[in-house]
Amino acid sequence: MQLKNDLLLRAARGEKTERTPVWLMRQAGRILPEYRAVRESLSGFKELVETPERAAEVTIQPVDLLGVDAAIIFSDILVIPEAMGLPYELVEKVGPRFPEVINSRNDLNRLHLVEPEEHLGYVLDAIKITKKELDGRVPLIGFAGAPWTILCYMIEGKGTKAWAKARRLLWEDEVLARTLLEQITEATIVYLKAQVAAGADLVQVFDSWAGVLSKELYNKFAMPYMKRICDAITEVPVTVFAKGGGHFFEDLATLNCETLGLDWNIAPERAREIVGDTKTLQGNLDPSTLYGTHDQVIEHTKEMLRRFGGHRHIANLGHGVYPDIDPERVRTFIQTIKEY
Length: 340
Ligand code: CP3
Known about the structure:
By secondary structure, the chain is of the alpha/beta class. It has one domain (7-281): Alpha-Beta Barrel (TIM Barrel). Helix content is 47%, strand content 11%. It is built from 16 helices and 9 strands. The protein has helices at residues 7-13, 33-40, 45-49, 52-65, 79-84, 116-119, 121-134, 147-156, 164-172, 174-198, 215-221, 223-232, 249-252, 268-275, 294-308, 327-339, and strands at 71-72, 89-91, 95-97, 140-145, 202-207, 238-242, 259-261, 280-285, 313-317. Strands 1-4-5-6-7-8-9 form a 7-stranded parallel sheet, with helices on both faces. A two-stranded antiparallel ribbon has the order 2-3. Helix 4 (52-65) packs parallel to helix 7, helix 8 (147-156) packs across helix 10 and helix 15 (294-308) crosses helix 16 (327-339). The longest helix has 25 residues, at 174-198. The chain starts with 6 loop residues before the first helix and ends with a helix. The structure holds coproporphyrinogen III. Coproporphyrinogen III binds at residues 25-30, 39, 45, 72, 74, 76-78, 90, 95-96, 143, 159, 206, 208, 320.
């Protein structure tokens, strides 16, 4: 189907656009009272993710209520470990928890191959419903976690600051680390391909904990798998967001993806110098800027747009929007970009 607003896809492919497209990581969620209303009518986050009609509804909310140029399917990166055999829970005000984790090579026996239609049918159904209800208004973004970030959760069982247990594994049992990374990579490729077949117009790979790895370890334990994923997804543009990866940005620039996401700690000018005109850059306003005044949001958003130079840029924050940010500031951010 022909999209009415395809700014995101044209920007990703490096084509000229009338203006810079904008969307926000975590745009669907607790910043919107309308999301909280849907969420409270269900037993919790997981039920929302696993109920395709309701997941589609909250996916579309930011398109209607905020005016973003893309929808991102409402789900989580943790559905992959669950589909592989390690279920997750989402504990209110605490975060994700895995009752069982991978501690030894023996634990790999608990994992199995992922059949997207069988294990992740609820995400594919949510994508199909969303596409139908969007009716071509804006593109739909599919996503998955990067192998390194998913390994972090499968080893640690919860979010941590340093991911020391996961990093310890890289030194103590390279075979286990690589076997697990391989399995996650295979699952991620079939999952992303199934999302595309269901209707995703672009996919983003979130390497949220890239920043805890040195350049050397990232190249050893993350890059080969990122490369496999980027090379395998040829159907739609791919965005790689390796948060905290400024110290190996030159390496990320070699990936076969259309767009690289930037967090707020890498200068747009430096990223542009490294990728030249070969890639689109996405980002990178510090999300905390949205705690500022209306005028401060306008000023800093304009400054960001100026620094990216208006070509091959997708405007976004440098990470997900914080849950206690006033939706009015988000609207100001979006409006400033649309009027620039
Ligand atoms: O709007 C969107 O961006 C789409 C939805 C989306 C969610 N999670 C919904 C969600 C996306 C793209 C994700 C990805 C995700 N999940 C990442 C990668 C992006 C990033 O933030 O770095 C990571 C690391 C996770 C793991 C995860 N899920 C954590 C650490 C948490 C708890 C912390 C938190 O932000 O609440 C979640 C839960 C989660 N995923 C929520 C949402 C809306 C909050 C659940 C709720 O509504 O109570």
